[in-house]
Amino acid sequence: MHYFRQFLNFLIELARNQHIIVELTKRDFKAKYLGSYLGILWAFVHPTVYILVLWFVFQVGLKTSPMDNFPFILWMMTGIIPWFFFSECWANATNSVLENSYLVKKVVFSIGMLPLIKILSGLIIHLFFVGVIFIMFMCYGYPPCLYNLQVFYYLFASIVLLLGLSWFTSSLVLFFRDVGQIVNVILQFMFWLTPIIWSSKLLPAKYMNILKLNPVYYLLEGYREAFIYRSWFWEKHYMLTIYFWSFTGVVFIVGAVVFRRLRPHFADVI
Q1: 1: which DSSP letter?
Q2: Which of 66, 69, 104, 247 has its CA 20 to 30 A from that of 76?
Q3: How many structural domains are present in the chain?
Q4: Could you tell me the pTM of the whole model?
Q5: Burial of 31 by CB count in 10 Å (0-12 exposed, 13-18 middle, 19+ buried)?
Q6: What is the mean pLDDT of residues 120-138?
Q7: What is the Rg, in whole angstroms, of the alpha carbon atoms belonging to the chain?
Q8: 3-state secondary structure of 140
Q9: Could you tell me the residue range of the domain that residue 87 belongs to?
């Protein structure tokens, strides 16, 4: 009961500072590219170039055949764009408190906002690329439909998972600086062990249950369900949905409680 009360107090504290969160998100987004000639355009240039390189390698160089009768570029984009959002947000949010150490000793400032600000900053870029997905599908003759709206459900699910993970790792990294590097290594493994640029149908059936333990699998497949396979998440993956939200709920609560309990010691280790 004590931990649950701490969790609720933590969320209430964040809700009271929503106007500050919005302003700091704008500031963080602009500050990343301050001083460069192209400014915030770099936020969109880097992912675009990476997508084009992957498309050239797999579509032109390796002549990859269509995935599930869909052009490879469309299939790949629905996997790699949500992956960009997840990986960038978790890596940046993990170091958010460390990067803003000067705010830790300010009693009136809610430190728990910092990981959330990094996630919301990444959300701005992600929403742009979600729009690109819609445009690309229309260019290939696939008009928008009701199934596409599920992308916002999976986006919400991504944010909840990211918040829990980020609160947990951003608090631990102050005491164990290797946590940031560990997160980067985990993300590297997850990129290749998650069906982002390869289809899960290529995997032997006996390994599918292991693959589904990865919560990012649920998110990426969800984007493809929304745009390619066009089915509702409660129709085909209701058991996977229950597992994902059970896992994410635990991570979210544990992350919030750990962050709140360690916060009084932040100033001592910075």
Answers
A1: -
A2: 247
A3: 1
A4: 0.85
A5: exposed
A6: 88
A7: 19
A8: coil
A9: 2-269
